[in-house]
Amino acid sequence: MAPKLNDIDVKLLRVFAAIVEAGGFAAAQAQLNVSPSRISTQIADLEARLGMRLCQRGRVGFGLTDKGRAVYEASQRLFAGLEDFRAEVGAMRGRLVGELQIGVVDNTISNPDSRLDDAIARFRGRDNDVHIVMHIAAPSELERAVLDGRLHAAIGAFHHHAAGLAYERLFVEEQTLYCGRRHPLFARPPEAVTRADVTAAAYAHRGYMAGTKAKRPAAFRPAATAYHMEALAVLVLSGRYIGYLPTHYAAPWVERGQMRPLLPRELAYHSLFEVATRKGTHRTLVVRAFLDDLRRAHRDVPPRDRGSVPPG
Predict the structure, then answer these.
(1) CA-derived radius of gyration, the chain
(2) Per DSSP, which regions of 86-183 are E strands?
(3) Which tens digits make up the pLDDT trace of 44-64?
(4) CB–CB of 220/262 below 8 Å?
(5) 8 Å CB contact between 274 and 169
(6) What is the pTM of this model?
C-alpha cells in the first residue's frame, strides 16, 4: 500500500473486514450487495496494494492467512480511530456525532430490571446525530467483539471476566429451572418432585457456559446444548428436557400452562448483568455519554442479587 492512506484503501479494508466477519465471500455478498466477481476483484486489488496475500479462497473454503489476520486487527483499530476523530470533531461543535455499537444477550427486554431502553431514550434525548447499531449474541461472542473493537459496549451475564475488559454492575436476573407440559415431571405435585428426579432428567445446558468454573446447585445430566434462550425454550417445551430460563422470559409459558418451575426455592439462582468495555482505550464522548445514561437508567433499580450461582 502507498505510504499515503487513500479513500479507496479504507473502502477496500471495509470490504475485507465485512468478509472476515461474515465468514467468507458468499456470506458477505448479501451484506455488501455486490456480485461475487466484484468482491473477488476488490480483495485482489487490496492484496496488490498491500503486497501480501490476505486469505485463502476457493474449493477449500475461506480462511485468513497470518498476515490477513493481522491486517484485519489493524483495520479494526483504524476504523475505531476514524470514528473517534468524527466523534471528537462533533464534540467540538457541541454535538454527539458518530456511531455507537452496542451488544446485548438475547431476551432481556422483558426483565423489568433491565433499563437499556430507558438508557437509549436518555441518550437520544441529547443533542446528537449518532447512529446506534444493536447486536444480539452470546456472552463470550460479545466479549470478543468488545476486545477487538467491533463493539463499544456489551451487556450480559459474564461468568468469567476477560483480562482486557472492564465490567460495571447493572442489574440481576433470576434464573429458574423448568420443564415443559409433556415432561414426566410436569403433572407431579410440587412436593412430589425431588432433587433426585431433577438430576436424573435430561438437561439442556447453555453452550456458552462450557469451560466456566460455575458452582452448580445440582449435578445435572447434560443431554442437549443451546446457545440462545429461544433455542433453550424450544428444548424445554418439547417435554424431553429440563433447563434454566430467565423467570421473566418463561412467565408467559407458565401462565399458559406450557411450563412449570422445578424446585424454585432450592435451585433458582440470580445472574449478575454487567456492561463490559475495553480497558486501556480512549472512550469517545459518544461512548462516555451512553455509559453515563446507562448508569443513570439503572441507578434506581433496587438490588436483588442473592449471589451468582450459574449452572452450566
Answers:
(1) 23
(2) 96-104, 128-136, 153-156, 165-180
(3) 898 888 889 998 877 667 888
(4) no
(5) yes
(6) 0.72
> 73: which DSSP letter?
H
Structural domain boundaries, residue 62: 7-74
Pairing of strands 96-104, 128-136: parallel
Dump pLDDT digits (tens) for 264-304: 999 999 999 999 999 877 778 889 999 999 999 998 655 44
How many of the other CB atoms lie within 10 Å of CB of 144? 16
- Which of 139, 131, 23 is CA-nearest to residue 72? 23
C-alpha cell at 8: 479507496
Are 243 and 230 in contact, with CB atoms under 8 Å apart?
Answer: no
Distance CA(12)–CA(54), nearest Å, equals: 12
CB 168 within 8 A of CB 278: no
Which CATH number characterizes residue 180's domain?
3.40.190.290
15 with 140, same domain: the answer is: no
- Residue 143 C-alpha cell reads as 466479549
Write the DSSP symbol of residue 282. P
Grid coordinates of 108: 432481556
Q: Which residues have C-beta within 8 Å of that of residue 93, sequence separation ≥ 6?
A: none
**Residues whose CB is less than 8 angstroms from the CB of residue 195 and which lie 6 or more positions away in sequence, other chains included:** 218, 263, 266
All cell numbers assigned to 227: 446457545
Amino acid at 312: G
- Quick check: is 81 in a domain? no
Domain total for the chain? 2
**16: number of Cβ within 10 Å:** 24
